[in-house]
């Protein structure tokens, strides 16, 4: 039985270099983790995702980007990390200290770090639309859909569809009981052979069959 693409093959679709698997692309980067089969689609230099699409992600800040398995990132989406933030506790938000030449004197790093919003976590099976923006410290639940050009400023519930600027919940993809069952089943954590055997239930709407396969 074929078990799908190699999760560590950089280009999992032969002949389509615009599609890149993010887990192998993330290898060697200590401030992020990526689950298997998550991918980015971009006709222009898709392999630069972590340099061009993940912004202001500096090791010295200490925040992490966590991307679950089976996520789909559309062209031009952006993930903004805490390194983009400016201290807002004083009268000015201008980052005088980074320019040095005496302007760093008296700067108290705690005034900046106190406003950091923590890690950014994107759950399993999330679809992020073209040119959407994810702001620092956001958690997106599994199964969520982020509409094209949405600006996500707050946490997104599992299996929610959000759109707009700032992004607001439009609807839930399923009723509460079904969402609770899907989170409990967590098919995205199954071994790949088990996923492959049950693809019809996963990509269909047969919850009973999915439960029996768990």
Shape: globular
Q: Considering the protein shown, what is the CATH homologous superfamily of the largest domain? A: Hexapeptide repeat proteins
Task: Sketch the topology as an H/E string, one letter per element.
Answer: EHEEHEEEEHEEEEEEEEHHHH
Determine Rg (CA atoms, Å).
19 Å
Helix content: 10-25%
Number of extended strands: 15
Mean pLDDT: 94
CATH topology of the largest domain: UDP N-Acetylglucosamine Acyltransferase, domain 1
Q: Looking across the biggest beta sheet, what order are the strands in?
A: 1-3-6-9-12-14-15
| Structure annotation, total helices | 7
Q: Class by helix and strand content?
A: alpha/beta
Give start-end ranges of low-pLDDT stretches. none
In quaternary terms, these chains amount to single chain
CATH class of the largest domain: Mainly Beta
* CATH architectural category of the largest domain: 3 Solenoid
Number of individual domains: 2
Described by strand count, sense and barrel closure, the largest sheet is: 7 strands, mixed
What is the first-to-last residue Cα distance? 19 Å
Approximately how much beta-strand content do the residues carry? 15-25%
């Amino acid at each position: 039985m074929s078990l799908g693409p190699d999760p560590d093959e950089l280009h999992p679709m032969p002949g389509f270099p615009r599609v890149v698997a993010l887990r192998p692309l993330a290898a060697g980067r200590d401030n992020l983790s990526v689950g298997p089969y998550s991918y980015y689609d971009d006709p222009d230099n898709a392999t630069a995702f972590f340099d061009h699409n993940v912004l202001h992600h500096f090791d010295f800040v200490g925040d992490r980007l966590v991307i679950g398995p089976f996520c789909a990132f559309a062209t031009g989406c952006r993930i903004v990390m805490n390194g983009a933030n400016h201290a807002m506790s004083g009268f000015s938000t201008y980052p005088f200290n980074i320019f040095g030449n005496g302007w760093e004197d008296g700067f108290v790093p705690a005034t900046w770090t106190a406003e950091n919003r923590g890690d950014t976590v994107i759950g399993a099976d999330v679809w992020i639309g073209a040119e959407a923006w994810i702001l620092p410290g956001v958690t997106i639940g599994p199964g969520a859909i982020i509409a094209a050009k949405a600006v996500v400023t707050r946490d997104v519930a599992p299996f929610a569809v959000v759109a707009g600027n700032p992004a607001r919940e439009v609807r839930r993809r399923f009723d509460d009981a079904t969402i609770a069952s899907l989170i409990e089943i967590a098919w995205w954590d199954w071994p790949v052979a088990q996923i492959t055997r049950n693809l019809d239930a996963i990509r269909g709407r047969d919850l009973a069959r999915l439960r029996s396969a768990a």
